[in-house]
Amino acid sequence: MKIGILSRNQSLYSTSRLIEAAESRGHEVKVIDALRCYMNINSEKPQIHFKGEELVDYDAIIPRIGASVTFYGTAVLRQFEMMGVYPVNESVAITRSRDKLRSMQLLSRKGIGMPITGFASKPDDVKDLLDMVGGAPVVIKLLEGTQGIGVVLAETRKAAESVVEAFMGLKANIMVQEFIKEAGGADIRCFVIGGKVIAAMKRQGAEGEFRSNLHRGGSASLVKLTPEERKTAVAAANIMGLNVAGVDLLRSDRGPLVMEVNSSPGLEGIEAATGKDVAGLIIDFIEKNAATKRTKTRGKG
After folding, report:
1. Is 243 left (phi over 0), alpha (psi -120 to 50) or beta?
2. Can you tell me whether residue 242 is helix, strand or coil?
3. How far is residue 95 from each of residues 74, 90, 102, 237, 264, measured CA to CA in Å?
4. Cβ neighbours around 301 below 10 Å, total
5. Cα–Cα distance list, 117 to 3, 67, 103 (Å)
6. Which residues are Mn(2+) 2-binding (predicted)?
7. What is the DSSP letter of 205?
8. Among 85, 102, 124, 278, which has the minimal tally of Cβ within 10 Å of its Cβ?
9. What is the pTM of this model?
10. 211 among the known binding-site residues?
11. Is 213 annotated as a binding residue?
12. Is 9 labelled a binding residue?
C-alpha cells in the first residue's frame, strides 16, 4: 500500500512512529508538507504537485495538520479525497473539530456532557455571560488557541471581567466555560480509533497549574475508564466524524464532560503511558478500510 502522511516535519515523534509502523508492515510511505503542495483543480483530473512532482497512486493519506495551517492543509486533504485517496480523517471532520465553538454546539445538540459554555461578542454582555456559566472562577479560552495557549483561569469575577474585556478589545474570539473544580487540574485523554477507545491516560497538571498539557509540565499515567467515559469518548469522536481522535474528558460530579476533540492527537504521551503500539493500530485501521476507498465527503464542500 502507498501511504502519504501530511506533516511538516518527519522527525516529529508522531510522524516518525507512523512511518516506522507503516514500513514495518511493508507499506511505501512518503511524508508530504501540505504547504509545499500546489493543486490543479479541474473537473476532469484533479491533481496535486509536490516540489515539482505529481503525487499519484496513493491508497491512503494520514493528515497530521497543525492548527496554524488548518485552512491550507484541509484544502490539500480535500484534493486527495477528490482523487479517491482514503483519508484517515476527512477534511470536513477536521475543520469541524478545529472550530471550538462549532464543535461544542454539535456536541451539545447530541446531548454530550460538557462544561457550561458561554459565547458573546460585546463587552456590555460580560456580566450576564458570567452569570450564565455559574460565575467565577471561570476558564476563558481563545477559540484559535491550541495546546493550552490562550487559556486563562479567572478566579474572581473582577478578574474574569477584565480578561474578557481585554480579549474583546483585541477583537479576539473567546469562549467562557465553567471551572470544574472537582477535576483537580487533571483530565483524561481517550484515544479513539475506528469507534473504539484503544488507549487512555490521565494527565495531571503541574503544581499550581490548572492546565494538564504534558508539554507544560504535566504528567501522564494509566487510567481505568468507566463504561460511561468510553461511551462518551466514542460518541464525541463520531459526532465530529473522526476515525482517529483524542477526546479530552474531565471527571465531574455529574459524569464525564468533553473538553475538546483533537483530530491530530499526539502519540508520544499515550504510547509512553500505556505501552501500546498506537501508531501500529492506526496502520491496522488503514489496512482494513483503505481498500474500499470510501470517502464520504468526496464531491461535498
Report:
1. alpha
2. coil
3. 7, 9, 10, 13, 12
4. 6
5. 39, 22, 12
6. 260, 262
7. P
8. 124
9. 0.86
10. yes
11. yes
12. no
262 annotated as ligand-binding: yes
Query: Which domains, from first to last, does the chain contain?
Result: 2-89 (3.40.50.20), 117-179 (3.30.1490.20), 182-263 (3.30.470.20)
Q: Which residue has the cell 510511505?
A: 29
Residues 43-94 pLDDT 10s: 889 999 999 999 999 999 999 998 889 999 999 999 999 999 999 999 999 9
Q: Which residue has the cell 476515525?
A: 243
Contact 70, 94 (CB under 8 A): yes
Pairwise CA distance, residues 37 & 301, whole Å: 20
The answer to whether the annotation marks 102 as part of a ligand binding site is no
248 is in an annotated binding site: yes
Phi-psi region of 167 (alpha: psi -120 to 50; beta: other; left: phi over 0): alpha
pLDDT digits (tens, 9 = 90+) for 180-222: 988 888 899 999 999 999 999 998 866 655 555 555 556 788 8
**260 appears as a binding residue in the annotation:** yes
